[in-house]
Write a structure and sequence with these properties.
- The protein is globular.
- It is built from no helices and 11 strands.
- The termini are far apart.
- By secondary structure, the protein is an all-beta fold.
């Protein structure tokens, strides 16, 4: 069974940094795109960042310049390095796998999802 295991969430002050990790198990995702999404209470899930199999990246305007997505195919893991965090970044963050090689911000095109990890940014 495919599993995406997320870690690294927590509480951080505004302006601080946090690194999220997502390890995939049950399949090898080295040839597929991976992405990060987030969802705040009462709001729809939104795109954050995505990375292709050959490290092409795409970011939402709200996080561009502050967040960096990367992957380690040998470890079947994707990372999200977050810096200059703002209270509005507070959300549950989800990693996802798209069974294609190219990136897309459309959450409907992703096939597998993690359970999410909470990120809370205090003011």
């Amino acid at each position: 069974q495919v599993q995406l295991v997320e870690s690294g969430g927590g509480l951080v002050q505004a302006g601080g940094s946090l690194r999220l990790s997502c390890a995939a198990a049950g399949h090898t995702f080295s040839r597929y795109a991976m992405g990060w999404f987030r969802q705040a209470p009462g709001k729809e899930r939104e795109f954050v960042a995505a990375i292709s199999w050959n490290n092409s990246t795409y970011y939402a305007d709200s996080v561009k310049g502050r967040f960096t997505i990367s992957r380690d195919n040998a470890k079947n893991t994707v990372y999200l390095q977050m810096s200059s965090l703002k209270p509005e970044d507070t959300a549950v963050y989800y990693c996802a796998v798209r069974l294609r090689s190219a990136v897309t911000p459309n959450l409907n095109e992703y096939d597998y999802w993690g359970q999410g990890t909470q990120v809370t940014v205090s003011s």
